[in-house]
Amino acid sequence: MRDPGLAKWRRRATKEIPVSCNKDCGGGCALIARVEGGRITRVFDNPRRPRDMRGCVRGYRAHEAVYGPERITEPLIRNGPRSSGRFRRAGWEEALDLVAERIERICRTFGSHAVLGFAGSGSCRGAVHNTAILTHRFLSCLGPDGYTGTKGSYSSAAQSFVLPYLFGRPDVGIDPLTLLRSRLILLWGANIVDTRFGADLETVVGRARSRGVPVIAVDPRRSRTVERLADEWIPIRPGADAALMSAMLHTMVNEDLVDRDYLERHTTGFEMLESQLLGARDTGAATPEWAASITGVSAESIRSLARRYASTKPTALITGLSIQRTVGGEEAVRLAVALQAATGNIGVPGGSPGCNVWGRLPGPRFGRIPANPVGNTAAGRSVPVYRWPDAILGNESPTSPPIRAVYAVGANYLCTGSDITKNRRAFDALDFSVCHDYFLTPTARRCDVVLPATTFLERDDVVFPAGNYLFYSARAVDPPGAARDDYDIFAELAGRLGFHDRFTEGRSSSDWLDFLLKDSEVGDIEEFIACGVYDGGDHERIGLSSFFADPTGSPLPTPSGKIELASARYASAGGPEAPVYRGVLPDRAYPLMLVSPHARYRINSQNATVEWAVRREPQRLVIHPDDAAARRVRHGALVVVESEIGAVSVEAEVTDGIMPGVVCLPAGMWPAAEPDGDDARADRSGAPNYLTSTEPTMPSRGARTHTVFVDVRPAE
Ligand SMILES: Nc1nc2c(c(=O)[nH]1)N[C@H]1C(S)=C(S)[C@@H](COP(=O)(O)OP(=O)(O)OC[C@H]3O[C@@H](n4cnc5c(=O)[nH]c(N)nc54)[C@H](O)[C@@H]3O)O[C@H]1N2
Ligand SMILES: Nc1nc2c(c(=O)[nH]1)N[C@H]1C(S)=C(S)[C@@H](COP(=O)(O)OP(=O)(O)OC[C@H]3O[C@@H](n4cnc5c(=O)[nH]c(N)nc54)[C@H](O)[C@@H]3O)O[C@H]1N2
Ligand SMILES: [Mo]
Question: For residue 1, what pLDDT band results from cuts at 50, 70 and 90?
Fold first, then answer.
C-alpha cells in the first residue's frame, strides 16, 4: 500500500499527526492534527481516509475544547457543601490518598458492592483509553464480589434487549456502500446528518439520492436530515412509530403486498403478527384510520407509503435509536424488522435489517484491553443505567445492598441522566463520590474529588470506527498541567488499594497498545501508525450473510433457527409475543410531547459550554406557531416548560420546523449551577432532563427520553 505521495506527505507531516475522535458521536473519523510550537492549530480530514468518510465540525474543533479556559488541569477536592461547587486545588498524592482511603473504608464497612461505577460514553471507541472498559477493569478488583455496575445503555437498551429474540446474533448491520444499490431509502427517526452513525453514511445516502433514489424521512421535526437529504418529510408523533408500522403492515397484508416465500424461508411468527394486525387477537385491527389518530399521519398517507414501500425493491429502512427511547420502543424495533422481512429486504444488497445498524458489523481483528483482569472472577452486580438514582435511593430493588459511593469516568449523569432533581438528591445521599473529567461538569461539581484526565489528542490509541477500518490516533501534544490518562490514575489508585499488578498485568498503557497491535491483523504496524488508516478490505458487507446464503444449513441461534418476528421467549421476559403498539398519549394536564434529540454541535453533554458550539446552537424550546399562539408564547420570549417531573425556563423558538403538538429541547444541555445551591426554579439553561423521568420502558428497562409530556407557558 505504499505510494510515492506518502513519503512526501510524511515529511511534510512531521507536525501533522493522525488522530481520531474517541467520542460517542456516531462517527469515528480519520483526522489530522497540525501541531505548531507544541500546540494544535488545526484539525482536518486525513487525506488517507476512505473516500466517503468525512469528519465533522465537532472533530475539526476538538482542540478548541482541549484548550478551553475551563479545562481542569489539577486534582480538585471539595471544600464546601455538595451543591456549592467550591473546590480547592490539590496535588496528585493528596487526592489519590484521599480517594483510596475513602473507597477502602466504604468497601470495608459496606462491602465493595456499595461502590457504583458510572462508565459513560465519554471515550468509547478506543482499544486502550476506553472509559467503560478501564472503569470496569479497575472497580472489579475492589473485592471478591466486584462492584455495582450499570447494565443496558442510555443509547439502545430497548433495541439491545429485543435483538437476541429476533436474530440471536449481533452482527446484523450493513456497510453503507451497499445503499448505493437501494431504490428507496427510509430514514426513520434517524437524523443522520447530525448523529451520523458512521463517518460515511450521510455521504453515501447523499450519493444514492443524487442518482435519483428517493429518500423519505419520518420525524416529528424538520431535522437537518429532512432538509438536506430527504425528498419527503413524514411528520409523526413521538413514540407512535409502532402504530404507523403496524398500519403499513396491515395495508400490505390487505393488498397482498407481502413476500410470503421470503417470510416462509427466513422467519417465524408472521402469522401471529398478521392475525393480531387484522384484529383477531385482543388488540383491535391496526387499520390506517386507527393509526392516523395516534401518529398524526393521515390514513391516506399511510396507505400510499405502504404501497410505495412494498412495491420498490430493494428498500433500506434505516431507523435511528430515537424510536426505541420511548415507552414501548421495544416494539418499534421489532416492527421495523417485521416490515423489512415482510418485503424480503433483509440480507439483500440495498436492503437493511430494519433495526439501527450503527456499528453492528465487526471491524478488522483488533483486541481491546480486557475488561476483566486475568484470574478475576468477581461476580459483580448491576443496576439498569436508566435507574441509577433509584438504585442509590433504594427504590430500584429493595433487597439490593446499599450504594454508598459513586465512581464516575466519562459520564456526566447529573446532566445526561433523566430527572436531574432526583439525580442530585441521590448524589447528596452518598458518602463519597469521585470522577475523572476535563471540565467541572454538573456531575464533577457535585463530586468530592475531581481528577483531571487527558483527551484523545494527548494519548496514543487505536480507534474503532463504525465500518471495516481501524484508525490510529497518536498523541499529538502533551497533556496540560497535571492531567493524567485514566489508565495511569487507575494504576496509581490500584497501587494504593493493593491490586496494582492485577490491574496493570505488568503493562503500561503503551505496552497494552503495543501488545494489541502485535496481536492484531494489522501487518505493517509502522505504516498504520504513520498514516493513521488500516483498511479491513471488504466494504460492501451484509450482516448474517451465512444465514442468508443457506437458511437451513446455517441457521440463526434462535429456537427456530430463523428470524423470530413473534417470540414466546420474549413473552416470558414480559413483552407481548407478537409486536404491538403500546405507546402512551398525552393527557389534558400535559398536552404537548417533548423530544430531546441529540444536538448537532454537542456530543451528548460535551461542548455544552464551549463557546463556538454555544454560539451555533443556543438552547431553545422549539414550538410550532399554532401551539405558541394558543399559549401566547412569542418567538424569543422566555417560557416555562413543565412536566410531571419538573420545570425549566428557556427561550422559545417558534417555527413550523416541528409538527403541532410536539416541542423540542436538544439533549446534553447542562443544568445551570447556582452558587451555594441548585434552585431549579431559577434555572434558565433549558436542560431537558429536568423534565424526563426515570420510569423506564419495559421489559428492557431502557430510556424513554422521547416519551415525555409537558405544557408550556410564558414566564411571568
Ligand atoms: N451530533 C451528535 N451526534 C451524535 C450524538 C450527539 O450527541 N451529537 N450522540 C450519539 C449517541 S450517544 C447516540 S445514542 C446517537 C443517538 O441517535 P438517535 O437516538 O437516533 O438520535 P436522536 O437525536 O435522539 O433522534 C433522531 C431523530 O429522531 C427524531 N425523533 C425523536 N423521537 C422520535 C420518535 O419517537 N419517532 C420518530 N420517528 N422520530 C423521533 C428526532 O427529532 C431526531 O431528529 O447519536 C450519536 N451521534
Ligand atoms: N434527554 C435526553 N437525555 C439523554 C439522551 C437523550 O436523547 N435525551 N441521550 C442519552 C444517551 S443516548 C447517552 S449515550 C447519554 C450520554 O451521556 P454521558 O455518558 O454522560 O456522555 P457524554 O456527555 O458524552 O460524556 C460524559 C463525560 O465524559 C467526559 N469524557 C470524555 N472523554 C473522556 C475520557 O477519555 N476520560 C474521562 N475521564 N472523561 C471523558 C466528558 O467531558 C463528559 O463530561 O446521554 C443520554 N441522555
Ligand atoms: Mo447514546
Answer: very low
Same domain, 632 and 699: yes
Q: Once rounded to an integer, what is the mean pLDDT over residues 581-593?
A: 96
Please identify, by atom number, the ligand 2 atom nearest to the C-alpha of residue 689: 1
φ and ψ at residue 223, rounded to 5 degrees: -70, 175
Cα 603 to its chain centre, rounded Å, is 9
Is there an atom of ligand 2 within 6 Å of 603 CB? yes
Domains identified in the chain, total number: 3
**Are residues 634 and 567 part of one domain?**
no
Q: Extract the C-alpha cell encoding 130.
A: 476506553
Q: How confident is the model at residue 10 (pLDDT cuts 50, 70, 90)?
A: very low
- pLDDT single digits (tens) 170-182: 999 999 999 999 9
Q: Do 493 and 609 sit in the same domain of this protein?
A: no
- pLDDT at residue 66 greater than cutoff 50: yes
Locate the ligand 2 atom nearest the alpha carbon of residue 129 and give its number: 35
Cα torsion for 122, 437, 144, 427, to the nearest 10°? -100
The 10s digit of each residue's pLDDT in 685-712 is: 999 999 999 999 999 999 999 999 999 9
Output the nine-digit C-alpha cell for 437: 473529567
Helix (H) or strand (E) segment spanning residue 36:
strand 31-36
247 Cα–ligand 1 center, Å: 24
SS3 annotation, 484-517: ECHHHHHHHHHHHHCCHHHHHCCCCHHHHHHHHH
Which ligand is closest in space to the CA of residue 386?
Answer: 2
Looking at the fold, whether 299 and 180 belong to one and the same domain comes out as yes
Length of the chain: 716
Measured in degrees and rounded to the nearest 5, phi and psi for residue 450 equal -125, 125
Q: What is the 3-state secondary structure (H, E, C) of 390-443?
A: HHHCCCCCCCCCCCCEEEEECCCHHHHCCCHHHHHHHHHCCCEEEEEECCCCHH
More confident residue, 69 or 205: 205
Burial class for 496, CB neighbours closer than 10 Å (0-12, 13-18, 19+): middle
| CA-angle at 434, arms to 693 and 446, nearest 5° | 55
148 Cβ closer than 6 Å to some ligand 2 atom: no
Residue 321 domain-assigned? yes
What backbone phi and psi angles, to 5 degrees, belong to 333? -65, -45
Note if the bond before 402 is cis, omega within 30 degrees: no
User: Does residue 181 sit within a domain?
Assistant: yes
- Ligand 2 atom showing the smallest separation from residue 455 Cα: 35
Strand order in the sheet with 469-473: 461-463, 469-473, 533-535
316 and 228 within one domain: yes
354 and 385, same structural domain? Answer: no
Q: Is residue 34 part of a domain?
A: no
Q: How confident is residue 288, by pLDDT bands cut at 50, 70 and 90?
A: very high
Q: Is pLDDT above 80 for 674? A: no
Whether residues 354 and 496 fall in one domain: no
Tell me: do 350 and 277 sit in the same domain: yes
| Average pLDDT of the residues in 474-478 | 96
Range(s) of the domain holding residue 666? 592-714
Angle at the Cα of 382 (from 376 to 386), degrees rounded to 5? 145
Q: What is the pLDDT of residue 537?
A: 95
Bridge partners of 116? Answer: 148, 406
User: 75 in helix, strand or coil?
Assistant: coil
Residue (of 53, 50, 42, 55) closest to 15 by Cα position: 42
Is 33 a member of any domain? Answer: no
pLDDT exceeds 70 at position 216: yes
Q: Whose CA is nearest to atom 25 of ligand 2?
A: 122
